[in-house]
Amino acid sequence: MENTQVPVRQKQLRVTSIRGMGQVISVTAALLVMTVIFGIINPSFFSSDNMTNLLRQVVPIMIIGMGQSFVLITGGIDLSIGSVAGMSCMISATLMTAAHMNPILACIITLIAACMVGLVNGLLVSKTKLPAFIATLGTMIIARGIAQLANGNLNTDGIPEAADGFKNLFYYGKTFGLYNPVWIGIILFAIFTIILSKTTTGRHTYAIGSNYEAAKLSGVNVVKAETKVYIFSAFLAGVVGLMLTAQSGMGTMNAGTSYELNAVAASVIGGVSTMGGQGLLIGTVIGSFIWGVLNNGLQFAGAPLALRNLVIGVVVIVSVLIDRVARSGNVDLKKWLKF
Amino acid sequence: MKKLLSLLLVVMLVMSVFAGCAESDATASDVTKEAKLVYLITMDKMDQHWVNVDKGASVMAAGLGLKYKWDAPDVKDNAKQIEAVNNAVADNADLILLAANDPQAISEAVKNAKAKGVKIIYVDSAANEPAIATLSTNNYQAGALAATTMLDELAGAGMTSGKIGIIGVNTATNSTMDRENGFRAVVEAAGYDILTTEYKDGDAAASQESAYGFIVGNEDLVGLYGTNEGSTVGVGNAIKASGKSIIGIGFDKSDAIQGLLNDGSLKAAMAQNPFTMGYLGVAQAYAALNDESTGPAVIDTGVAVLRSNK
Amino acid sequence: MKGSLLELKNVSKSFPGVKALDGVSFDLKAGEVHALLGENGAGKSTLMKIISGIHKRDEGSYKIGGKEITDINPKIAQSLGIAIIHQELNMCQDLTVAENMFLGREETKFGLLAQNHLNDKAKAVLEQLKIDIDPEMVIRKLSVSKQQMVEIAKALSTNARILIMDEPTSALTEKECKELFRIINELKQNGCAIVYISHRLEELEEITDRVSIFRDGQYIITKPFNETNLDEIISYMVGREITEKFPKIASQKGKKILEVRNLNSGIVKDASFDLFAGEIIGFSGLMGAGRTELVKALFGAERIESGEVILYGERIKISSPKDAISHGIVLGPEDRKSEGLCTKLSIRENIGLANLDQISNKWGLIDKEKEKTLTEKAIKDLKIKTPSIEQDAKNLSGGNQQKVVVGKWMVRDAKVVIFDEPTRGIDVAAKVEIYNIMNQLKEQGVGVIFVSSEMPEVIGMSDRILVMCNGKITGDLKANQTTQDEILHYATQYSN
Questions:
Q1: What ipTM goes with this model?
Q2: Scanning A24, B222, C411, C437, which has its CA 20 to 30 A from the CA of A204?
Q3: Are A219 and C75 in contact (CB < 8 Å)?
Q4: Which of A6, A193, A200 to mutate to test binding with chain C, by most C CBs within 10 Å of its CB?
């Protein structure tokens, strides 16, 4: 019998060897090019005012995008996150206005409520085997309904001065020159990236997205793993809801509408595959930046509103195409174009 | 191969951005570097109402040699309007003409803009934060005027009692709520029954369906009232489709509404003066930017009653 | 039995409507390879699922190391040292070798994955089996045979002592099979016991110690392999004598149907051959030689880059399966479940799908009666065993599924029928039925092409054998004058 000495591993230092980085690098390049173009068209784009603004604008979609990415990696989708953000906005605002509640307590209750929705989504998908699309469609409508009920089908009053600290933390305040939400985004990104790439939870997330049966037969608790991602997604949507409350200083029943699809767009642009099993959160971050830069830059360039949607739509489709091309490994361009 | 394809797609991505920038807003006026920048931020860019505000504003801006830009969210949304204001400030706007989607929500953003030295004038809908001037329709009075017009028409048609239905926009927008409340006060006093308002966010199709629902569900329906352009178009179309002689009164002016007035489906519409709001607003802006007197702090730009001659 | 690692006695299991196992027994000794044989439906896979904890037995005793097992599920089975290597490999394609190996058993340090440590552990196990694979390689990039080796390594890393291998060689080439057998021998030497299920009876000789045979859910017999022979085994399996394994019939060679000249498509380079009416040509060669690519190109499923296809003397252009079908060239593809059938549809719908032009009118409305008649004809002609024409294709046995794949085309009067690995994963008796179908076509004057990796089958059924290597046709041999060695010689002509 040979000497079974455990071999010494050589550290892989090349960034490109990390799975999924290929597309991330491509879109980062595209982002830089876009930024430069917009800056040339209107130099105000580069002003420190606009840049700090831009960072803050990007944060909501980045945070909600990360939650959606977790779900997408398992092969599912969470259509309810926009409504959960709106619901969180309304609940937190109502608690702070009508119920005169301490903002900290209001935030905690709001986030718990958001996680409850996530739990429901998770159980529906993992235990009753309802397709994610259908399950989260249902909770999307329910959560929006809760948003409307929270303050009796009215938007709330302005949140009181006592909640100014809350407003500063979640939107208006700055720390070391960057708006606070940006810091919140950075911290959440760090936490969730570690979860995704360095813990068993993250590993199981990729596994059930890659091959549910294989994961199950390998002893992975698939119900737990799948439920967790929906809770993450709802939690992050809840955080965004709090940011919306802070931003407008009140609860709006329609807050967060269509955020779920924007989140899918950001994820897909960043290389998260809608078929599951692949994707990195850094990609989602870049994807949300592309989203933000397009929206912001096109406005600074004076592009008509209608065209903005067109451009963003094209970008999403192109990103999915890149994903398909990368997925199929060896691609024969001629064969591809034939059919 | 794969890398080549990825690169190709990235290039396409960038080209599409170019395409987006190739057309720029026709309304951006081209003047000297020294000119001040005035931004108009409305609630959305869809409503003809805002298009008219923009027309008035850009005419005056061109005449006075001001740099001018118009921006708004694609849908009525507080968060998006806040971003629009922030972007305008970052784009070095000197003055913002603002139609606040919600008086409370936008206040903080307005405060911050003012802190950065940006001057504020409200058009159409004011916010809670104080500004240099407000140009708007007194919506409550306009609603009351709509009511008297409605009563007038009903009397003329010999209908002294019955039900009246209101198609509103939403409970959050103060301007339309004021129009509704002003209307209600007058009509209820005259003894007509007002049904529970249907709120359809100004979507013409949805408004039409709800209006038709009112017609079909109430034998004794004598009048319908819409509180903005979309609601009014819906009301008029519903009346036309039903073929009944119900009195339709509405708000705002547009080609669609004019058509409904022409064929008698609507009897009258309270036309706001969005062009005037924009036009005078920019004039006041010019004055403000040159540290001159800006005139009255509140200007009621009023409504004209457009009547059908059928 | 003393010394048995695993022992099942009088085990029965029923499902609604069918008794899958009827009082069967099975035992396993350490260090042996015990083959479990039987036709499809004999109960082998049900037994495996009971052993691995996926199903619970209704009756009977199940002992491991002498201890009775009362409660079992996949996780418990894993802890008892049982591992199963499925026929359809079950791995997470986007994860690496090491990540798959330790899926569900990841070690952590302060809550974070100890990935480096796991990678090293994986490398150690792979080296123990002398398998040269990088543990950080993503599974998707590995060949099927390498993926299988990873599955085996995974089983070993769970300290499995009982390995169940279900059709492990069905997708492997000769060379890869040899590698697999070497690993199996390593495992044997380590004291593992292996339950080996395969339809490839010829290869059992190399590794099997004992053989047990089931038939129709019942236990028939167990014998040491060296005390029996293949013919006896087959007769136990089918309950009757099978005299002719390969029922070859003489060929009445007719006109030249097909002429392929200098065909280039993907890895296929410069292929040329003729096909005559009433003959069967077999395509032999190693995995990756280009046989499937060649037949797919003829069927229009792959692009023909250059070259000519001449049918009955006339040059034809094939750029899609539709073209091929309209010229009478049809294909039963390699992967019947994913390429040959719509498994979620019924037999009727599958057969109808390929023949919509025959059963629908000019407005596109489908004549249900015609569809039914067509399907019933196919079922009768090919002896497809099914309770009704509405049976979902996925519920049929492998052999019957293959018949539906072929049946689609049989009702069309095809001129050239191509079979790609028609008997893969099918039991002995059903194989003979497929061979008979091929003969039927031969007698009708159809030109039959069949691709197979089982050399005995190719020699047994073809009139001529074309050998491919590295995309080129390297040999054109007469079946009754050649040997396996000669075919292998041409199959490895890389320098040509």
A1: 0.79
A2: A24
A3: yes
A4: A200
